[in-house]
Amino acid sequence: MTDTRVYPHGGRLRMPRSRGAASGFLLILLGAWGALIPFVGPYFDFAFTPNQEWFWTTARGWLEVLPGAATALGGLLLLVSGNRATAMFGGWLTVLAGAWFVVGRALASPLGIGDPGTPVAATETKRVWLELTYFYGLGALIVFLGALALGRLSVRSARDVAYVQRPVAAAAQPQPAPSEEVTEIQPTGRTTAERPHRSWRDMFQGGGRRPVHR
Questions:
Q1: Hey, CA dihedral for 32, 119, 146, 109, is it positive or negative?
Q2: Which DSSP state fits 42?
Q3: What is the spatial distance between Cα 159 and Cα 162, in angstroms, rounded to a whole number?
Q4: SS3 call for 144
């Protein structure tokens, strides 16, 4: 018996898209938060200096917009990719972006990328919340989710093997032509063997045979 199943190429790199979907979706949300919060935070009195809506600075571009966009891009790759290498690239991108959220403020002055500003807060509690949600806590959460996704991607589970080895529809094979034979249903009470047709001459000549006299 011939096996007509076809298996896709690059099986070790193929995986179900659902493998990194949950982490990817959350990372997209966190990346969008990190990139947009410095511009919309002043609307509800939750900001770093300068406390102005949609105010661009070099420090905001390097320390918040860039890592936020990188996180969203990495999350998108994790969400939609069915290739293990591409998804792992997205995971590493989010880990690096999250790490930059954590250490970027400390390196801003040595690298000369501008002043990251100070929290606009009247109480110590609000200052801590601003530090966590803008930089340190946000970055740590992104690193955690990115590392979690990388851990899942690095393991080739039985489900992945079954997904790769699933039979793929082979090329269309010619189908047998429908039979042209017609089955005739005989009415009840009649035999399938029809009597030979006899003409009027056969009736008088005994079927065309002359009697044999002994």
A1: positive
A2: G
A3: 5
A4: helix
Measured on CA atoms in the order 186, 189, 191, 196, is the torsion positive or negative?
Answer: negative
What is the distance, to the nearest Å, from the Cα of residue 71 to the centroid of all Cα atoms in its chain?
Answer: 18
CB-CB contact of 60 with 38 (8 Å): yes
Give the angle 116-119-121 at the CA atoms, nearest 5°: 170
Could you list the mean pLDDT of each consecutive 10-residue stretch along the chain, which spans 214 residues?
48 66 94 97 94 93 97 95 90 97 94 91 95 97 96 68 48 50 51 52 51 50
> Coil, helix or strand for 118?
coil
Contacts of 69 (CB under 8 A, 6+ apart): 31, 35
Its pTM stands at 0.69
Q: Which helix (H) or strand (E) holds 21?
A: helix 21-40
Crossing angle for the helix pair 66-80 and 84-111, nearest 10 degrees? 170
